[in-house]
Amino acid sequence: MKNKEKKKRKRSLNKGLLLLIMLGYIGLLVLMVALDLQLIVSYRRTRENKELDIVEKYTEQVKSHMEKIDLELYGVYSNNKNFLKLGTTQPELQEYESGYELKETLQK
User: Fold this and answer.
1) What phi and psi values does residue 29 have, to the nearest 5 degrees?
2) Distance CA 102, CA 81 (A)
3) Higher local confidence (pLDDT), 101 or 49
4) Please, which contacts does 88-95 make with residues 24 or more away whose CB atoms are closer than 8 Å?
5) Are 66 and 91 in contact (CB under 8 A)?
6) Alpha-carbon torsion (95, 100, 106, 108), positive or negative
7) Of the residues 14, 18, 77, 108, which has the fewest C-beta atoms closer than 10 A?
8) What is the pLDDT, as a whole number, of residue 8?
9) Residue-wise pLDDT tens digits, 13-50
10) What would the pLDDT profile of 44-89 be if each residue is shown by its tens digit?
11) Neighbouring C-beta atoms of residue 85, cutoff 10 Å
């Protein structure tokens, strides 16, 4: 009888130990999945911030270039004699010459 009880205890102890090990592995697995998810979210946020910084820098650069172009065109259209001549009635040859000179000025 004692022999049977010892075997039952041993089996019970083995089952308990096995259950404890399984719970430990499950807990470790859950912890690893949670850490992976946290790392993925962190990586996405970092990447998104970097991409937003790149887009912001590019936007500022384009804005700066557009302001320079705007100033240049304003100067040409308000002060250029060839542009002002195109707004008046003139012979076709002079109109063509004014247009050509304006084109040359804009290409500089």
Assistant:
1) -65, -45
2) 9
3) 49
4) none
5) no
6) negative
7) 108
8) 67
9) 888 899 999 999 999 999 999 999 999 999 999 999 99
10) 999 999 999 999 999 999 999 999 988 888 877 777 777 777 777 7
11) 17
Q: Which two tokens stand for residue 29?
A: 């697995």
- CA dist., res. 101 & res. 81, Å (int): 10
CB environment 33-57: b (16+ within 10 A), e (fewer): eeeeeeeeeeeeeeeeeeeeeeeee
CB-CB contact of 86 with 99 (8 Å): yes
CA 56 to chain centre: 9
Q: Is the Cβ–Cβ distance between 102 and 83 less than 8 Å?
A: yes
Confidence check: pLDDT of 1 > 60: no
